[in-house]
Amino acid sequence: MKLILKALVLLSALAFCNLGLTQGTKADYERALNLRTQARGKLFKGSVEARWHPDGTQFWYRNKLAKGASEFVVVEADTGKRTIIGNGTRLVRALEESLEHEFKEGESALEALVLTEGKTALLRSRGTTFHYSPTTGQLREHGEELVPSRKSLKPDDRIRQYFQRSRYTSPDRRWKIEVRNGDLLGKPAQGGEVIRFTSGAELDRVSIFWAPDSKRFVALHQLPGEERHVHVIESSPSDQVQPKLKSWRYTKPGDKIFQTRITLCDLETKRQIPVDHSLFPDPWSIGSMRWAADSSRFTFLYNQRGHQVMRIVAVNPSTGRAETLIEDAPETFFNYFQKLFHYYLDERGQIIWMSERDGWNHLYLFESTSGKMVNQITRGKWVVRGVDHIDIEKEQIWFRACGMNPGEDPYHVHYCRINFDGTGLVRLTAGDGTHNIRLSPDRRYFIDHYSRVDLPPVHELRRSADGSLVTRLEEADISALQTIPGWSMPERFVAKGRDGKTDIWGVIHRPSQLDPSGKYPVVEKIYAGPHGHYVPKRFYDFFTAMDIAEVGCVVVVIDGMGTNWRSKAFHDVCWQNLKDAGFPDRILWMQAAARKYPYLDLSRVGIYGGSAGGQNALGALLFHPEFYKVAVSDCGCHDNRMDKIHWNEAWMGLMGPHYAENSNVTHAHKLKGKLFLTVGELDTNVDPASTMQVVNALIKADKDFDLAVVPGAKHGVGEIPYLRRRRQDFFVRHLLAVEPRGD
Fold first, then answer.
1. Residues of the chain where predicted confidence (pLDDT) is lower than 70
2. Are 338 and 571 in contact (CB under 8 A)?
């Protein structure tokens, strides 16, 4: 019987090993290692950088082709007619004659091109600049150096609003404000009696904002906060043998912060006017200070610490009375990182305001005097991703949106335009992908670039009036990428989340040597930071997940609940609950994928990530050990009390017991599975002590784990070649049960 049992154990072990015979081998490692370098420079026609004619009727761009070749394309904007300037054309023949040089196949005749007035062009060939007329075919040397024009407007240039800048001299130049020994003094510019507005105030970091009539001013100053510093030892400095002490300022959640206060002063009465601070008692920030043109009031933006109140406050400078103009006070958080936008339409007496008050990120129009809402500008179960341009004359807003097209990936970015009153919505982009546009100088046309992880870049010329297509300019050429051993595009995959209704989106990366009849461990690449979404949406010639996939694992990337740019309810899952990290959605997603693809072995699931992803990777073993078995955690913010204040208080709010409850340190004693921790000793982003406190808790709990502390390294050290290789090895050993790089 003992012999039979031993035989069965041996057969089981052999069967398990057979599942991984072609995984984790030296050949697998070599393919994975070479993918990154071999893919570089193999994507052709991947971008179109238009150089526009001054009158906006023409533009040209340069296509990079295989073997170092290139071609120049001239496009008529009205018709979309494309003219390729290639070998054998009249222009190139003229260049060959002038230069006494024959351009061979694959050799580029042009080095640069500029369209000039009168449908003519300046061009450079073999270091010589020429003037060329396409109408006559005349070519002559040009004496000036050629500088290619890059003149075009970018819609994603940040909106620049006018806010009155801090200045110490009054608009009428009759008064100057001086801060002396922490007190405010008003000094007549031409000499005279000095007015003392404060005594013993100890004001610090003062900014002055004058009323347009020069009769009053507002002084913003800061109350002192806590000066916390992080101290680390640089063990191996390059310029000396002995270690060095390194320190930097680093404020953490719960610390006393510098807070802005308002002092209102009147030059005519020579006194302070007390301001009611009850509407802004605990500021994270006070900003966007601006006076009304008639000096009748001033307004500012108040972001309350804890980020549950965002309001525009208006103050009567005669009485100091404050009132709320516009306010959002959600039960969870106001996402001031990405969803704070307000724009004053002074001539109309209105304000455009961004808000999630109806459950989706949208734009609203308010009266700037009463604060009454005029109308909701955008609406629907989709989100405004950002505002690109405010056209005051046409009363229109150009903006980006996500989730507007039913049946399409809700994270795809599209471009739109809408009237202030919410009518006239124009969808400028149409292709099923995530978009980026570049406008012509006169904004009549734009070039639309879009792609997906499984769709190489497409470039189209469209009209701004209605988004209609003029012509498709280019489609990227990936034929060279497809010849690289081990290269493949990921697959997009969608499954329902924890509520059984919400679509959860992700991608699947497979090893190139995959045998559908076999079994493969699954490794999740995770980053559940609430400030964004992380499943790639654009096409790339190389994805870092390929490093792990090619050694014999199926790698998945998923956006679970609690991440950004879906509904407010989707995002709110993270509120004071970062340890959730969308795991219930991620696990269901992988289970759905395994039902479709039986070769996914969910008894062998690994996970890795860095920073917030490092926190998540360890959290997988602590909170879901029944599913996740192996984790590699790099530079994790394992305890939100240890990390930077602005990121953590944004999602966790004010300090409370929920911070400890979400801490990996608190739960370290629950560790099951195989863990590899990595950290750079000079990490200035996440305090490296956050990792070491996890190490301390694991040692106290008598838990086994691996640790790599890299001397002199900063944040993201897990992506250096050494640790990328160690990460591969860790998964190969513990998920494939083979020795890495074996034959």
1. 1-22, 86-88, 106, 117-119, 135, 137, 143-166, 743
2. no
> Residue 721 corresponds to which amino acid?
P
DSSP collapsed to 3 states, 239-257? CCCCCEEEEEECCCCCCCC
Q: Please name the CATH architecture into which domain 15-40+481-736 falls.
A: 3-Layer(aba) Sandwich (3.40)
Going edge to edge, which strands form the sheet with 82-85? 51-52, 58-64, 70-76, 82-85
d(CA 225, CA 285): 13
Q: What is the pLDDT of residue 87?
A: 62
Q: Give the tokens for residue 71.
A: 């071609």
Describe the strand order of the beta sheet including 259-266 as a list of residue ranges. Answer: 207-210, 216-223, 259-266, 271-273
- Identity (one letter) of the amino acid at 206? V
Count of CB atoms situated within 10 Å of the CB of 140: 10
Q: What angle do CA 666, 672, 673 make, to 5 degrees?
A: 135
Q: Which residues pair with 469 in a beta bridge?
A: 462
pLDDT digits (tens, 9 = 90+) for 66-109: 888 888 898 999 999 998 876 667 788 888 888 888 888 767 77
Element (H, E) at 724: helix 721-731
Rg (CA), the chain: 31
- 8-state DSSP, 119: G
622: phi then psi, degrees, rounded to nearest 5:
-80, -40
Amino acid present at 344: Y
Note the CATH architecture for domain 357-476: Beta Barrel (2.40)
Per domain, the residue ranges of the chain are 15-40+481-736, 51-141, 160-340, 357-476
How crowded is the C-beta side of 62, counted as CA atoms within 13 Å? 16
pLDDT in tens, 291-309: 999 999 999 999 999 999 9
Both tokens of residue 321? 């009375």
Residue type, 92: V
Q: Which CATH superfamily is domain 160-340 in?
A: Dipeptidylpeptidase IV, N-terminal domain (2.140.10.30)
- The answer to whether residues 615 and 647 touch, using CB atoms and an 8 Å cutoff, is no
Task: For residue 218, give the nearest of 115, 292, 113 by alpha carbon.
Answer: 292
Q: Are 305 and 257 in contact (CB under 8 A)?
A: yes
Q: What's the predicted TM-score (pTM) here?
A: 0.91
pLDDT for res 100: 82
